[in-house]
Write a structure and sequence with these properties.
The complex is a heterodimer. By secondary structure, chain A is α/β, with parallel strands linked by helices. In chain A, 44% of the residues lie in helices and 22% in strands. The longest helix of chain A is centred in the C-terminal third of the chain and has 49 residues. The chains are: A alpha/beta, B alpha+beta.
């Protein structure tokens, strides 16, 4: 070894540490612009990705503490601005950026990402109207996927309590913004499906910036809503805000309060409809009965029935007349019979023997009791009985003649 | 409330009952039923109405929280509303 070769020998670690110090001390914190690629969220919460442009790329890390302030996770292909410190990842001997802030470079990028996902899911049929299911009308349990602290929850509770207090609300609390919120929302939707405890879901959050609402534009949320067997009402932001979740949901409400109004009927309305049904049934029945009555009367007015009625009328009049006549005839005959009978009894009385004998006539009978009307039937010495008006006498025939 | 629930047949569903009731009303109002059929429908309708009315009296509003037990079963527990700041709005 020459003197020239007598240099300090560094270990790789020492070298890397030295390069790192040089890099860190000579390059101040700076803004870098580039396209995000290979975005990975580590389970630790750190983000790993690359920034690149046409000429090259650089590895980036964003530690959990910094990543937590992100409203949305930049997706691959998005132009971003990173505020970063240049450093060296000693174990790989690779220089990298330690990112403190990460911004999407302009709203155009967000809009682009939104349209890209929207078109993709549309092509796949996630927004198809045929896939939309009806929301059960009279729910007994509704699942809520939203923040436990936001005004949204209080608004929904207020509306449901006022309109339909027959219902229970079950909250599956989730963060509704920030990195990872989308996955948690998707999980909460799946959990409700597995639980079998509710009839449908309201998924949402209050209004905010496009970045605030971004979780509801994430593919995981869209797919969870599409895969949900329970119908889903989306309620994100205010009126004009449309998210991907809104397109996939079975029903889109313009605000969370409106979602609650759409989700439940009004109890007093249902009650009055019910009593309406009662009176409608009564009226219908009465109307039916009166129509039957009219029909009967109308049937009575028909030609056939009129003929029949006439016939009946004629016959009954005839019958009455006949009865009258019959009565008169009977009465006359009875009267006739009576007079006849009177006369008969009078003549009978006159014909009876009593009155004749009272005038001095007598009746003679033979021994068998037969009245003797002719002397020729008598023989001499025959004994007869003579009856008088009063008393009788036994006699003997001496002689007969004419 | 418990006695009211007991009086309801287990398969009673408000939605089904109200749907059937609406059918009955429409059928009666169509005037296309014979009088004895109409009487049967009316009777059925009044019965459904009675049941629905008592179901509507079961006011039972609650807000609960979904929780997962260690065994992977879902349960609900009572929750108190947090009066936190509206960090979302």
């Amino acid at each position: 070894m020459s003197d020239n070769d007598k240099q300090i020998i560094l270990s790789v670690s020492q070298l890397n540490a030295q390069v790192r110090r040089v890099l860190e001390s000579s390059i101040p914190r700076l803004w870098v612009k580039g396209e995000v690629s290979n975005m990975t969220v580590h389970s630790s919460g750190h983000l790993y990705f690359s920034l690149k442009d046409g000429g090259g790329q650089v590895r980036c890390v964003m530690f959990k503490a910094a990543a937590q302030s992100l409203l949305l996770l930049p997706q691959d292909g998005m132009q971003c601005l990173a505020l970063a410190d240049v450093t060296l990842y000693e174990r790989a001997g690779q220089y990298q950026l330690n990112v403190q802030q990460l911004q999407i470079a302009g709203q155009g990028e967000l809009a682009l990402a939104f349209e890209r996902l929207k078109n993709k899911l549309f092509q796949e049929g996630l927004f198809d109207p045929e896939h939309k299911r009806p929301i059960p009308k009279y729910p007994t349990a509704i699942g809520l996927v939203t923040s436990p602290t936001g005004a949204v929850l209080r608004d929904i509770i207020k509306v449901v309590k006022r309109r339909w207090p027959l219902c229970q609300l079950i909250l599956n609390p989730v963060p509704v913004q920030g990195v990872g919120a989308g996955d948690k929302i998707a999980d909460a939707i799946k959990q409700f499906n597995d639980s079998g405890l509710v009839q449908f879901l309201i998924v949402g959050r209050g209004g905010g910036s496009a970045e605030d609402l971004w979780a509801f534009n994430e593919e995981a949320v869209a797919r969870a809503i599409y895969d949900s067997k329970l119908p889903v009402i989306s309620a994100v932001g205010h009126q004009v805000d449309f998210t991907i979740a809104d397109f996939v949901a079975d029903l889109r409400a313009p605000t969370p309060s409106a979602a609650a109004e759409l989700a439940v009927p009004d109890l007093s309305e249902v009650r009055s409809n019910l009593s309406d049904s009662g009176s409608r049934m009564k009226n219908a029945l009465l109307w039916l009965a009166s129509r039957y009555d009219q029909r009967l009367k109308a049937a009575g007015r028909s030609y056939g029935m009129m003929r029949l009625a006439d016939l009946v009328e004629q016959k009954s009049q005839q019958l009455a007349r006949t009865q009258k006549q019959l009565g008169a005839v009977l009465a006359w005959q009875v009267g006739l019979l009576k007079t006849k009978l009177n006369g008969l009894s009078q003549s009978l009385a006159a014909l009876g023997p009593g009155s004749v004998m009272a005038r001095g006539y007598s009746i003679c009978r033979d021994q068998k009791g037969r009245v003797i009307k002719d002397s020729k039937t008598l023989k001499p010495e025959e004994s007869l009985t003579a009856e008088f008006s009063r008393g009788w006498a036994k006699t003997t025939v001496k002689e007969t003649g004419r | 409330m418990k006695t009211a629930k007991k009086n309801q047949p287990k398969d009673f569903k408000l939605e089904t009952a109200l749907k059937r009731l609406e059918q009955i009303v429409e059928k009666l109002e169509s005037g296309e039923t014979e009088i004895d059929q109409a009487l049967g429908l009316y009777q059925e309708g009044m019965e459904l109405m009675g049941r629905a009315k008592s179901a509507l009296n079961e006011v039972n509003f609650k807000i609960k929280k979904l929780t997962l037990t260690g065994q992977g079963e879902f349960k609900t527990e009572a929750m108190k509303l947090e009066e936190g700041p509206d960090d979302q709005e």
